[in-house]
Every structure is written in C-alpha cells, then in structure tokens.
C-alpha cells in the first residue's frame, strides 16, 4: 500500500515533512502495535510512548481537546486538569479500555511501588474507537497481556499504518481506515523543531470525504448517520506554555474539518497533544520551576503543522488500509482502489 503523499494526494505545502513523515520524527517518541486476529476477532492496540524513561516520574506536559464527547476514553479528565501525562497512551476498541487501563497501572506500579501508598495514584490514559462493524467487539478479545505486548513492541522507527494495531477494524467515510501518521518540520528563529501526529480514524459519513484536490469519493455503501470516532495524538519538541499546548491541540479540529468532518452527534472526537520539552518531575527538586515557551507571535507555524499533520495522517490511514469484509459480509472498500479507478491525468 502507498501513502497519500505517494499517491499524489498531498500538494506541496509551506511546511516540509520530517524524515519519516511520522510521529516518531519527534525525538524519543515510540509506537508499538499489537494486532489480534481470530474467529470474528479483528482488533488490537496501538501504544504511544512519549519518551523512553519513567513517564510517572518525568511527566510530559499535555493538553486534551474533546471536540465531541461521545466516547469512553480513560484518564482525560486529569490530563485536562493537571496538564501532564503519567503513562504511555494506549489506543484500542471501546470495550477494551479497562484491559488497557489495568496494564498501564500494573506497569507503572511495578516501576514505582510507592504508587497509591506512599505517593499519588497513577492516571492511565486510554482512548478508544468502536470497531464493531468488522471486529466482534463483544468477544472482549484484548487482554492486559496484549497491552503489555504493544508497550514492549514500541519502537522509535517506522510506524505501521492502515489496518494494524488499534486500527485493525476501523472505517472512515465509508472506506477501510485505521492508523495514520504524518509530521512537519518547523524553523523558528534559528532553531528547528518537529511536530508529528498519529490518528486512529473511525469517523465520517460515507460521501462526506473531501480530498485535497476537491474530489469527493463515493464509496457506494449504504448511507448511515455519522456515529464513528477519531483519536488524534500530536507530539512535538517545541517549548510551550500550558495555554499554548491547549491551543495547538484544538487545531486538530481544523485538520478534520478539511476532510469534510462535522463531528456528528454519535461521534467521539478527541485530540491530545504533548510536548517533550520541559517535562514535570514527580518530585521536583525546588519550589519553583522555569519553563521555556515560544512567543505567541510565532505560534502560527505550529497551528499550521497541527492542522496539516492531522489531515494527512487521516488520509494515510485511509490509503494504507486494504478493502475488507465487515461482520455483515459487506465489503468495505479501499480508498486506494477508488483512487486508482478514478485517477486524474
């Protein structure tokens, strides 16, 4: 399968992609997939690890934007309140949030036995989408051991995209979808920074997708109300104040809107953004901490990067996923196949 850029869907923009055009272009970030296949089972987990150290002890600063809250994710309330992550982020299907939460808690406690006893509890972050149109979600196939396997598989190298990990059973705009990623390089003053995004795409009504060239692909599937979800996770090494992190997180919505999404009543649309700059220590050495931040006059480049990477990541999730039969037996088409049949000379 080819990415959206390789298929000619992404025009030359103002910002260049990073070397891999993926979230792992942000130094230290790693991704781990765990794909589950079996009788009626087509699901999985995708782990996003912000840095290779102890995330409970050295907490990346983060923000969350709930664009439409029809979802069952875990841990978002504390991220919104305290502005930090304490665990990796796990993505999975709706009924597997508890199994993934347990794995994150057990791993954090194993590394920090004082959790919940001599120190605070740990806030596990798990986000979900409903893959029930392909996967037998009632099978509850995902276990804590599978979540551990996804975490153990996390690598800073190339990211598998399409119907892999948590993206295994996902669809978007009437096409097969899943995991997608993209990145942008940002030159600010005399310094270089990177912003990368990974999406779990499972949203958008059939016929609503708008490609960058203005075409509207028709997957020729029965129309139904918009009732999917999308999780957008953005990482950057740009120094940001908490307010600025929140503003960048919000720009994921601009990338989704470019694709034709309107965040329907039944859709759970959630964006998370974290920076690897200036993390927060669990036991700070002093009463006051100094943080660097970008001047607001220069933040538009990060806003643009967040919107561009979100849009391209969703297109990659669509282009990298092959056609597949759903649980009803109906074939869920591939956007890549549609593009080949409707090529523009």
Automatic annotation (TrEMBL):
Cross-referenced InterPro entries: ArgJ-like_dom_sf (IPR016117), Peptidase_S58_DmpA (IPR005321)
Q: Which GO terms describe its molecular function?
A: aminopeptidase activity
Has the keyword Lipoprotein been applied to this entry? no
UniProt entry tagged with the keyword Manganese? no
Gene3D superfamilies tied to this protein: L-amino peptidase D-ALA esterase/amidase
* Keywords, in A-Z order: Plasmid
* Family matches, as CDD domains: DmpA (cd02253)
Return the similarity comment. Belongs to the peptidase S58 family.
Entry protein name: Peptidase S58 DmpA
Q: Which organism is it from?
A: Sinorhizobium medicae (strain WSM419) (Ensifer medicae)
